[in-house]
């Protein structure tokens, strides 16, 4: 493709930016290449061609994932949709123990989106990719008519390599395993709720959006035999643990007092009648590990910037299989079930 | 939040639990009851807290909570939900309501499903948000679906007063507010009832005070204690009820005095008086029609009354035959004893309303209590040791 120095002069996205003509080429040159530039993307072929030898050095299996990001509002305290789209996919790769390497980026733009917004988002994606050590090497852009999408949707797919010997799966939990999280729960869900500005709450909570691959590498160096690992995104800690309990046919017992929760998040949940165990996170993982490794693992995680509030929050027991329970800090107990639909604030 | 932690102190809880056990022993010896003591918590917020903190597991088996009619979403009859849908589907209408009313099933669909099918249904956190929407969309008609007991009534009333002051013309209220006293009375008059005492609703009492409950203690000779919502509040209130029973007293006591004044809230009561009047009858899901248990908007505020402004079909739809919600509400059976509990009726496919809101007794049983986790009091011995020191 010809390397013209196109510069986008329009202030908003129009259907012409998706037409395949000059306006589209300028948009890609200026906004996309301007942000993501790297040797694999620069030729602007329809695909990125990646050397196998490079991949094979990192391990013996490929990890491959995709996710689509729609969030309202696009910018919220501590983050934005672009950062989310990179970290979400990076973290999905990392939860297999893989080292994430390459991402694709598919953009769906609504006619009328300010070009400046797209610029901010792609630059934020670049910054997040740099931080996570991945390159965005291929992509696609579509423009849809006003009303056919909500401003901006992003799809990212990712490739990573799983080191030899690492074998993480939701079905590997065993009685005696300890449940570990890497920090405060529910920040992202709470930040989004507050950013929608439907509540007259003064509290400011920032998203916890962050890449977790490096933390996982650190964890694997201490405990190569992590049994289960997952990032607790939509549905929160409760949903992930229910999935583990069911896949492994075990029970999981949580200790309410051990759960790391910010006062602000606890307070907002209290007022809205929401349960922080189900709030979304974007930079939190849950690991089930053999008991002997739990304490050294937490110590190593706390020394890492992405795991400073790491804690052991529960353990795996045999029965009743498939069930997650909570020892309330008050001395009682209850079931922590899968949620039906989304959490709706209670009336009073 | 320090304030809250004080009401969740597990060591204090153990002390209270010991005393509760002793009181229960005393009552049992005196009465030789063939059945457990049944204490009804009227308020859905209490039901929720009981399950959330696992209080059921902590209590001696001889004490049972009966989950009363206090979840306003749960007692909404199906016909009323259908009325909402017909309002929401009128052209130009923005229909607004609280989050947990969205999932209540009507005879054909819920408000959430209607929204997915194109009706402009929006969740708000307060009626004032709905009024704001009306001012921002002058060419649309904004209807607020007001429901709930005296807890939510004052904010609805104040919103109507504000709408009138501001001369807003495109705002109205579909009023489904209900009032607590006739409801408790209807329950007490039910012949199959075994209740021994009541935990009175904290938030409602904040508005109406404690005096309106006198008939429960005086006429029906049942103890009632107005209770707060923290787990220690609930345990302490239960302890106060049991103490009355052990000493053969029946009185209205106020455990939640830090919030609830005996005379209620004058300003709120005045707003209610100005805006609302009692309806002759109001239909409850599971309980049938209860005289004077609902309120409507006074004629002076007719322009804000969705029932006058639009044509509301006012449908009467019988509850599904298999539903035993009424018996659960009165404490005659436990949720899991209902024939369709957990089979035809689950939170995904609620047949009865008690399965809908997380404050509903059946949903709470299903989510938190359907599996026996009585072995879960793992740290109780340690706590008891600390309590003994
Ligand atoms: S299980 Fe369903 S039908 Fe039965 S009482 Fe509960 S809510 Fe009503």
Question: How would you describe this protein?
Answer:
The complex is a heterodimer of chains A (348) and B (389). Chain A has helices at 22-36, 52-56, 81-94, 115-132, 187-195, 213-222, 236-248, 263-272, 291-302, and strands at 61-69, 75-76, 79-80, 99-110, 135-144, 152-162, 178-181, 228-231, 251-255, 285-289, 311-317, 324-327, 333-335. Chain A has 348 residues and is α+β, with helices and mostly antiparallel strands. In chain A, helix 3 packs parallel to helix 6 (213-222). Chain A is globular. Chain A starts with 21 loop residues before the first helix and ends in a 13-residue tail after the last strand. Chain B is α/β, with parallel strands linked by helices. Helix content of chain B is 40%, strand content 16%. Chain B has 17 helices and 13 strands. Chain B has helices spanning 2-6, 10-31, 44-52, 55-58, 78-88, 111-116, 127-136, 153-166, 180-188, 202-208, 214-218, 231-246, 266-275, 306-309, 325-329, 361-369, 380-388; strands at 37-43, 63-70, 93-97, 121-123, 141-148, 171-177, 197-200, 224-226, 252-254, 276-278, 281-284, 288-291, 295-297. In chain B, the strands form 4 sheets. Chain B has a 5-stranded parallel beta sheet. In chain B, strand 11 and strand 12 form a beta hairpin. Chain B starts with a helix and ends with a helix. The chains are: A alpha+beta (348), B alpha/beta (389). The A-B interface holds A 198-199, 253, 263, 266-267, 270, 273, 275, 320, 323, 325-335, 337, 340-341, 344-348 and B 1, 4, 8, 10, 13-14, 44-45, 48, 51-58, 72-73, 98-103, 112, 123-125, 129, 147-148, 151-152, 203, 231, 347-348, 357-359, 366-373, 376-380, 383. Bound molecules: iron/sulfur cluster.
């Amino acid at each position: 493709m010809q390397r013209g120095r196109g510069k986008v002069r329009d202030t908003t996205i129009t259907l012409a930016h998706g037409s395949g003509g000059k306006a589209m080429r300028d948009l890609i040159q200026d906004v996309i290449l301007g942000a993501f530039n790297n040797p694999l993307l620069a030729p602007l072929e329809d695909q990125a061609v990646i050397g196998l030898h490079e991949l094979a050095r990192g391990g013996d299996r490929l990890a491959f994932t995709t996710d689509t990001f729609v969030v309202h509002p696009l910018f919220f305290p501590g983050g934005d949709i672009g950062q989310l789209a990179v970290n979400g996919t990076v973290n999905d790769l990392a939860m297999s123990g893989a080292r994430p390497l390459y991402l694709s980026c598919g953009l769906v733009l609504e006619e009328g989106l300010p070009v400046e917004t797209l610029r901010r988002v792609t630059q934020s994606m670049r910054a997040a990719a740099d931080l996570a050590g991945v390159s965005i090497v291929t992509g696609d852009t579509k423009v849809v008519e006003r009303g056919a999408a909500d401003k901006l949707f992003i799809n990212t797919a990712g490739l990573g390599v799983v080191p030899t010997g690492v074998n993480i799966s939701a079905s590997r939990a065993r009685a005696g395993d300890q449940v570990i999280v890497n920090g405060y729960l529910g920040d992202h869900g709470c930040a989004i709720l507050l950013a929608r500005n439907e509540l007259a709450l003064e509290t400011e909570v920032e998203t916890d959006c962050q890449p977790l691959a490096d933390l996982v590498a650190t964890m694997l160096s201490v405990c190569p035999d992590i049994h289960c690992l997952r990032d607790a995104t939509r549905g929160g800690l409760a949903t992930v643990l229910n999935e583990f309990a069911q896949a492994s046919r075990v029970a999981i017992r949580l200790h309410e007092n051990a759960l790391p929760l910010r006062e602000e998040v606890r307070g907002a949940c209290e007022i809205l009648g929401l349960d922080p165990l189900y709030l979304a996170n974007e930079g939190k993982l849950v690991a089930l590990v053999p008991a002997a490794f739990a304490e050294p693992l937490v110590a190593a995680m706390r020394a890492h910037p992405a795991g400073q509030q790491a804690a052991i929050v529960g353990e795996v027991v045999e029965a009743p299989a498939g069930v997650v329970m909570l020892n309330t800090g008050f001395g009682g107990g209850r079931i922590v079930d899968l949620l039906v639909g989304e959490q709706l604030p209670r009336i009073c | 939040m320090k304030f809250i932690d004080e009401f969740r102190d597990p060591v204090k809880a153990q002390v209270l639990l010991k005393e509760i056990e002793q009181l229960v022993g005393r009552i049992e010896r005196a009465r030789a009851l063939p059945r457990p003591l049944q204490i009804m918590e009227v308020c859905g917020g209490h039901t929720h807290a009981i399950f959330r903190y696992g209080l059921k597991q902590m209590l001696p088996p001889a004490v049972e909570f009966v989950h009363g009619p206090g979840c306003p979403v749960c007692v909404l009859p199906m016909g009323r939900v259908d009325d909402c849908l017909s309002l929401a589907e009128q052209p130009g209408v923005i229909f607004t309501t609280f989050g947990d009313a969205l999932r209540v099933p009507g005879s054909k669909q819920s408000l959430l499903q209607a929204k997915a099918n194109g009706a402009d249904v929006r969740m708000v956190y307060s009626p004032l948000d709905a009024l704001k929407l009306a001012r921002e969309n002058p060419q649309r008609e904004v209807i607020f679906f007001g429901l709930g007991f005296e807890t939510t009534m004052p904010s609805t009333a104040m919103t109507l007063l504000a709408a009138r002051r501001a001369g807003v013309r495109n705002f109205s209220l579909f009023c489904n507010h209900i009032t607590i006293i006739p409801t408790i009375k209807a329950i007490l008059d039910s012949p199959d009832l075994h209740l021994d005492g009541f935990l009175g609703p904290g938030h409602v009492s904040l508005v109406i005070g404690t005096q309106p409950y006198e008939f429960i203690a005086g006429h029906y000779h049942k103890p009632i204690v107005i209770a707060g919502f923290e787990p220690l509040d609930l345990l302490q209130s239960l302890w106060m009820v049991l103490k009355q029973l052990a000493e053969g007293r029946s009185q209205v006591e106020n455990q939640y005095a830090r919030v609830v004044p005996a005379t209620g809230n004058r300003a709120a009561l005045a707003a209610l008086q100005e805006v609302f009047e009692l309806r002759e009858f109001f239909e409850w899901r599971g309980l049938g029609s209860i005289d004077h248990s609902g309120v409507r908007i006074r004629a002076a505020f007719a322009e804000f009354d969705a029932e006058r402004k639009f044509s509301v079909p006012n449908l009467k739809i019988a509850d599904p035959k298999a539903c035993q919600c009424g018996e659960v509400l009165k404490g005659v059976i436990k949720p899991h004893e209902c024939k369709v509990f957990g089979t035809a009726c689950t939170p995904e496919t609620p047949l009865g309303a008690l399965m809908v809101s997380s404050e509903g007794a059946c949903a709470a049983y299903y989510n938190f209590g359907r599996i026996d986790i009585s072995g879960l009091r793992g740290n109780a011995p340690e706590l008891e040791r600390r309590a003994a020191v």
